[in-house]
Amino acid sequence: MAATIKDIAERAGCGLATVSSYLNGGNVRPANKEKIEAAIRELNYVVNETARQLKTNRTRMIGAIIPELNSTFCASVLSEIEDILRQHGYAMLVCDCRTDSAREKEAAAFMLNRRVDGLFVIPVDSTGKNLKKFVRSGKPLITIDRQIEKLNCDSVSVDNREAIRSAVEYLIQKGHRKIGLIAGPQEVNASYQRLRGYQIACEENRIVLPESYVFYADGTIGGGTEGIMELRRLHPEMTAVVISSYSMTMGAMIGLNEAGVLIPDDLSVVGFDNPQFAKAVHPTLTIVNQPIKEIGAEAAELMLKRLQEFDAGEEEEFDSKQHRWVKTEILEGHSVRKLQKDCEE
What we know:
- By secondary structure, this protein is α/β, with parallel strands linked by helices.
- The chain has a six-stranded parallel β-sheet, with helices on both faces. A six-stranded mixed β-sheet has the order 7-6-8-9-10-12, with helices on both faces.
- The protein is elongated, with a radius of gyration of 24 Å.
- Helix content is 45%, strand content 15%.
- It is built from 13 helices and twelve strands.
- The longest helix has 20 residues, at 292-311.
């Protein structure tokens, strides 16, 4: 006969409430935790998830919808979130929507049907229309990396405007003024904010450049390659370039490599994200780095807070949405050359 919670409580010498709290991810004293875990091992106790879901109306499952499973950023953030949620008794269900709005809509409906307790999304559709039904369910939804103003949900993101502004400022301090930008799709809020960071840095430093110093790419590796080739064709006088996403950084580096461009002698480069990649290329890249652990920790902590409110019947407090901003940093490599003053003009 299968062991029951009552059997666990008797073997551990704890109350039923204490064992129930432990099994549902609650906090119990370390001494009681050890006794309960020992009893579970001895009795080969297996949680009846179906019975628990029916009783609590909770699945202990958190959904995540991401644009690309092979994205280093997506995978790293989700790993950080999962590590934290697992410690609180939650598992994750992940859907890759292949950067496709229709797939994102299907994934959101799937998550709702699977009755996940909450949902993380790195949105593809900038309007939030695919996620409105989930929001109306009252369950917590948190967007990561991309904020959707019209969607009534929480978000965790880096300060994208400041991220690129600081990169341009870094180049200006090194003597550069003819600075190009490879921008992402402008219907994506994060890409738009990164463009604004570039524009603001130029305005603050009284740098006036032709509009063609900005190449609007599609956010892919191929877009990065096309962007760097076109910028160099149009502006051979350009001394530096900022690339506003990791995928496009990879693409730009491939293009520069194939063209035999010497970095930083021929062109200074500031890329975006992934310190491992930045160290692997030669010369090592200077990049705008997103603090993955902090993004994941902020998102997980906010989700746990919302789940606690939901359990307590305080979901009306969701109207007070939180938008948490995480700061980026410049990690210096050897891809930026310092110009002499006579080269600035």
